[in-house]
Amino acid sequence: MFKTDLKYITIHLVWFVVASLVATLIPIMAMIDVRMQLVITEQSFTEISQTVMLLASCAVVFRASRLNDTLKPACILLSAFFLCLALRENDTLFNSIYQSLWFVIGLIVAALAFGYTLLLGRFSHTVHSLANFARGRFFPGFCGAFILVFVISRLLGMTEIWDMMADALSLTHDQYYPLKTFAEECVESYGYYILLVFSLGLLHELRRPVTHAEHPTQV
Where are the domains of the chain? Predict the structure, then answer.
């Protein structure tokens, strides 16, 4: 028992160290982008890494959907949502082809995801799947990541906040704008990174053999 517990702790400590080291790359990439072009564009290291993390999360959660029938509808919807976020992150690229093309593709992805989940069973089955996902231990982590992406990042991107700070510190727009971009994109990247980490955790949990003490539909 002691050796098993020690092995479990060691593995998770190693995982923590590796995840922490990877997390340090986010501000480093943002600093390089800001120093190179002052503005973080869709061709920057930061934006490309955000797209990669979203697509990876999409693939991981979609893979997880094939491992548990009860959670399958919830995982498919979450996977489609990640794909829509990736499309939104590259809206400029898609808009260069056709105006609002990313939005049209996103609607198609969402419609296909909803349609497929309904084909798996009644609407009540999808609701039941979402409820089981919400009861799981990974749900708070996903919520925290979404708060970073959709709330904190957007607050840090508000020009009004930075204008007040600029007035207090006697800074011009050109002086504070790189700081604004750096803060906003770093927080957003960390949100996407946490989504990827918890997506991998979800996949790992569903791959584990279920014991009698565990509920097979909650992770």
Answer: 50-207
